[in-house]
Amino acid sequence: MIDYSKDVAALTPDDLHGFFQGWPDPPDRRTHLALLRGSAEAIVAYDEESSRVVGFVTAISDGVLSAYLPLLEVLPDFRGRGIGRELVKRMLERLEHCYMVDVVCDEGVLPFYEALGLRAGHAAMHRNYARQSGRNAGGAR
Prior knowledge:
The protein has 141 residues and is of the alpha+beta class. 19% of the residues lie in helices and 21% in strands.
């Protein structure tokens, strides 16, 4: 059974194994925990049978009009079970007060979000791959 929780305070880096697969320079588990805790909203999916975190979604928001969903991940062994869909659904419910909730994703992932009621749009983005791991992140100035 999968349990969904917005409480990430009790998580430790040891709870976050196997995420960011395929990333050339992935965040380590301490950085992963920091980004969960630093997000305006975070929801984790916990598999009670295996006693592990198997998915998560994060949101960054101004708390008034807008939010952005930067990260959604489900461990490969748990994909195809509706966990990602449930994480996004729950996050959209948490953000229903917002005028806009945006996601920037690869074209191949767009049908997943469209099935959840999001619409295709246009986006511009900058990626600094030298900072992909989050190491030496200085924060906003």
